[in-house]
Amino acid sequence: MTLEILGAEGFSQEVLAAVDALTKRRGESRSEAARRAKKDRIALAVKLADNAENMDLSRIAAPTERDYVRLEEYKVVRAILLGTAE
């Protein structure tokens, strides 16, 4: 799906900007993507909800060390989104 197709389907510029802000770029880190998403109010709300879901390890029956490492990455992303880290 592209932004052009979404635009042709009638989605507003505001929604298109949020989708663009939420779309992780090739080679971009989670932190870099979070900094970009933070600049758009809709993207920020969506990213915060997504981040909260990702941080909920209760959804994983038997979390592994890899899951705990990823959790630490999500904590950094959350701090960026909330403005408590750069």
Structure commentary:
Helix content is 66%, strand content 0%. α2 crosses α4, α3 (30-37) packs parallel to α5 and α4 packs antiparallel against α5. The protein is built from 5 helices and no strands. By secondary structure, it is mainly α. The longest helix has 18 residues, at 65-82. The protein has helices at 3-8, 13-22, 30-37, 41-55, 65-82. The model has no long low-confidence stretch (mean pLDDT 95).
Structural class: mainly alpha
Question: What's the number of helices?
Answer: 5
Distance between the termini: 31 Å
User: Which overall shape is indicated by the principal axes computed on the Cα atoms?
Assistant: globular
| H-E order | HHHHH
Mean of the pLDDT scores? 95
What share of residues are in beta strands? under 5%
Quick one: how many beta strands?
Answer: 0
Summed up:
The protein contains five helices and no strands. By secondary structure, the protein is mostly helical. The radius of gyration is 15 Å and the shape is globular.
List keywords for this structure.
86 residues; mainly alpha; 5 helices
Question: What topology emerges from the helices and strands here?
Answer:
Elements: H1 3-8, H2 13-22, H3 30-37, H4 41-55, H5 65-82
